[in-house]
Specification:
- It comes from Billgrantia pellis.
- This is Tricarboxylate transporter.
- The chain has one domain.
- Helices cover about 75% and strands about 0% of the residues.
- It has helices spanning about 1-10, 15-35, 40-50, 55-75, 75-80, 90-100, 105-140, 145-160, 165-180, 200, 205-225, 225-235, 250-255, 260-275, 280-295, 305-330, 335-345, 355-360, 360-390, 400-415, 420-440, 445-465, 475, 480-509; strands spanning about 185, 190.
- Strands 1-2 form a two-stranded antiparallel sheet.
- A hairpin with a 6-residue loop joins strand 1 (about 185) and strand 2 (about 190).
- The protein is globular and about 65 Å long.
Length: about 500
């Protein structure tokens, strides 16, 4: 209860005009970036990461939390207006929100999305506050071999979560692991893979990898799809002017959706969020499928049923709270945004782990308070006040928008590292990530492989050192054996059984 009390007390920090400004500004920036097709809140956080150096840790983490929550709900704007999700987490939302837009009910669809995002976001954050300390206590039972097996489990789940693209995801993850080995050895002071370059002996910094992977590669991808951006602007010319009161769904409409739908979808999203690599898109998909399965009118989904919007948006915003659980208690990011938040923690000298809730609860509690504040207050308030303007974000000229982003990315990388070499590494990583994306390789697994690589190597070598090179130590210890068995279960159900069932169905038809 002490930690919960600290979270409640942290709401008082929002009375500070400076902190409130950064939280609100972060939410608005995250909403704008997630509403523009092709841009994401991950990109916004990657670009703003250098600014955290000029802020105190508490303010920086609270701003990151508001950007995170905004990134999950902002994608529903263009998913509704032009049937192009601004973020991957809003893919399922578009199935029912765009048909409502075609019927002239676009503002109402956005209202349902905003209300469901508020419910899911608050529910996920509250569960995080209630359960994170318990999970942290349980994590104390995980020793060196267990931590190694856990990181391996996370990497495998991240790879197999890329349905239909497992081979390329595995290659990208291995590439990230390889990049993580560049620099000084983790156990002995010997430079590895520096090729005689002095700057490489210090290793590749996290900042250029994040900015290059998400910012630079996204700019190159958008430039390669300039015709698509032009078609989007043409579509927006027909978007009708809307009134602010049109965003408020009626009580009868909310009752028809039902509290069970909101609650069940939020639970699904939270549980999916605790799985590393799953993300809001998977949470929204599972909640949507469950809503269709239990509905009395399953045929109405995909034709403008508000229940589909409520299920998808409740789930993907509840993912925010779930994804922070493995990041805070184990140092394993649940999705790309929490990977960047992990970078903010590490940069400021905060090491996530089992004792984080006790030793540095004063820094974590304000971040969770900002997460709840963003979901409960900022989501409905900003949609009501600025909804008509958000719909027109995609009309911004691409040359002006992406030119500004390119300048911020390069300059921000230099400010963060004060190294022209690391700035050039950001460009190299951007070009590499662009070609990987062009050929269907998910760069998310590359980034997570780069972040998790040092921990995997450290715990693996430490475990083998303690056991004199005996690999059976991983099955002899109960913690590591548990994660090995869990890995086998996930591989069987997600990568073996389901593909076999699909092939059987195809042959039968």
């Amino acid at each position: 209860m002490d930690f919960m009390t600290q979270v409640v007390a942290s709401f008082g920090l929002l009375l500070d005009p400076t902190i409130l400004f950064y939280v609100v500004a972060g939410f608005l920036i995250g909403t704008v970036f997630s509403a523009i097709p092709g841009l994401t809140a991950t990109l916004a956080l990657a670009l703003l990461l250098p600014l955290t150096y000029s802020l105190d840790v508490t303010t920086a983490l609270m701003a990151c939390a508001s950007i995170y929550m905004a990134g999950m709900c902002g994608g529903s704007i263009t998913a509704t207006t032009i049937n192009i999700p601004g973020a991957p987490s809003s893919m399922m939302t578009a199935l029912d929100s765009y048909p409502m837009q075609q019927r002239g009910e676009g503002p109402l669809a956005l209202g349902h999305a905003s209300f469901a995002s508020m419910i899911g976001g608050v529910f996920g954050a509250v569960l995080l506050v209630l359960l994170a300390p318990l999970i942290a206590d349980l994590s104390l039972l995980v020793q060196t071999t267990g931590k190694c097996a856990l990181i391996l489990f996370a990497l495998i789940v991240i790879v197999i979560a890329q349905r239909g693209n497992v081979r390329r995801a595995a290659i990208a993850a291995c590439l990230g692991l390889m990049l993580a080995t560049v620099g000084l050895d983790a156990m002995v002071p010997v430079a590895r893979f520096s090729f005689g370059i002095g700057d490489l002996a210090a290793g590749i910094d996290l900042m250029p990898v994040i900015i290059g992977t998400f910012a630079i590669s996204e700019l190159l991808t958008q430039l390669a799809e300039n015709d698509k951006a032009r078609r989007i602007r043409e579509q927006l010319k027909g978007v009708a002017k809307i009134r602010r009161r049109d965003f408020i769904p009626s009580r009868s409409a909310i009752r028809r959706i039902g509290a069970v739908c909101y609650l069940k979808s939020s639970i699904i999203g939270y549980l999916v969020g605790t799985l590393p690599g799953a993300g809001g898109s998977m949470g929204g998909f599972l909640a949507y499928v469950e809503a269709v399965r239990t509905s009395r009118e399953p045929y109405s989904f995909g034709k403008g049923n508000p229940q589909g919007i409520a299920a998808a948006e409740s789930a993907n915003n509840a993912v925010c709270g779930g994804a922070l659980v493995p990041m805070l208690t184990f140092g394993i990011p649940g999705d790309p945004i929490t990977a960047i938040v992990l970078g903010v923690l590490v940069i400021n000298g905060i090491q996530p782990g089992p004792q984080l809730m006790e030793s540095q609860a004063g820094l974590i509690a304000p971040m969770l308070a900002a997460l709840i504040f963003s979901a409960l207050i900022l989501i409905p308030l900003t949609m009501y006040l600025l909804g008509p303007y958000f719909i027109r974000i995609v009309r911004i000229r691409r040359d002006v928008l992406f030119g500004t982003i390119a300048m911020l990315a390069v300059v921000g990388c230099y400010v963060a590292t004060y190294s022209t070499f690391q700035m050039m590494m950001a460009l190299v990583m951007g070009v590499l990530a662009f070609y990987l994306r062009k050929h269907g390789y998910p760069v998310v697994t590359l980034l997570l492989g780069f972040i998790l690589g040092p921990g995997l190597e450290e715990y693996l070598r430490r475990a083998l050192t303690l056991s004199n090179g005996d690999l059976t130590v991983f099955v002899a210890q109960p913690d590591s054996l548990f994660f090995i068995v869990l890995t086998g279960i996930f591989v069987y159900f997600l990568a073996i059984r389901k593909p076999v069932q699909l092939r059987g169905h195809e042959s039968a038809t």
